[in-house]
Design a protein that fits this description.
By secondary structure, this protein is mainly α. It contains ten helices and no strands.
Length: 257
């Protein structure tokens, strides 16, 4: 088999496994809770409960909260990879895949590419809810799409980290607990819900160590200026670096399993 044929088989096998994971998600509505219900609920709750206290009103708070909820949704959606991979490993379905004439990496790659749809849904849910609440970005629709794509790629890059966690963890419950704690810490200990300068000095120091802070800052800058900023470029570079590091590690852990 030549290289071109082998590459084509890998792509076809990965596409088939991605389709299988999408069907699995569709037939299990609980998998949509973190990509639809959660961003909508948090947007409504934070906007209407805290908008007046933090920014003087819901409309004034939306430019702050929309990028924050968007990034929180990416964390939540990306973290689902680890738990689903661990569930498949524990059920033995991956062992059955090994007996089939397919690329051995296809089940793992299929899961990660299927998660792209979850990230797209979470992005649409977050931005649409903000718009219905009165959020009106001062830039063109093209820049809103650019922000969405940056957030989706960031979430996809992070999903490789959670996939690695799922491959090395002992149970799906452990993965879910660790993912939930990670999502809460990274989102709440950042500038997702308040501006950085409003925090106390110790909290500012912690927030500046949080990588989520820089992603949210980049998104806010794009939506405020209508231009691709240096912060957005650095976020994109770091995302590529995360994939370059954790994708091979996830493949290594998958091979060991």
């Amino acid at each position: 088999m030549d290289i071109q044929t082998h590459g084509g088989n890998v792509m076809m096998n990965t596409a088939t496994m991605a389709y299988r994971n999408l069907l699995k998600t569709v037939h299990n509505p609980d998998n949509f809770m973190d990509v639809v219900i959660q961003p909508v609920l948090f947007m409504l709750m934070f906007g209407y409960l805290f908008g007046g206290a933090i920014a003087g009103g819901v409309s004034a708070y939306l430019p702050t909260i929309v990028p924050g909820i968007l990034m929180q949704a990416m964390l939540s959606a990306g973290s689902g990879s680890g738990a689903q991979i661990r569930e498949d490993l524990d059920s033995g379905v991956f062992d059955r895949f090994k007996s089939l004439p397919m690329a051995h990496i296809a089940p793992l790659a299929g899961q990660l590419f299927a998660d792209s749809l979850r990230l797209v849904i979470a992005t649409v849910a977050s931005l649409t809810t903000g718009y219905l609440m009165g959020w009106r970005p001062g830039v063109g629709f093209g820049w809103v799409i650019a922000v969405g794509l940056l957030a989706i790629f960031t979430g996809w890059a992070l999903s490789w980290i959670f996939a690695l966690l799922g491959l090395v963890a002992k149970s799906a419950g452990a993965v879910q607990s660790a993912s939930l704690m990670t999502m809460l810490v990274l989102s709440f200990m950042s500038n997702a819900f308040v501006l950085l300068h409003s925090l106390t000095k110790p909290l500012q120091f912690i927030a500046r160590l949080n990588p989520v802070t820089y992603v949210i800052t980049a998104i806010r800058q794009i939506l405020a200026t209508g231009s691709w900023t240096h912060a957005a470029l650095w976020v994109l570079i770091v995302d590529v670096g995360v994939v370059a590091i954790f994708a091979p590690l996830a493949v290594w852990a998958y091979d060991r399993n």
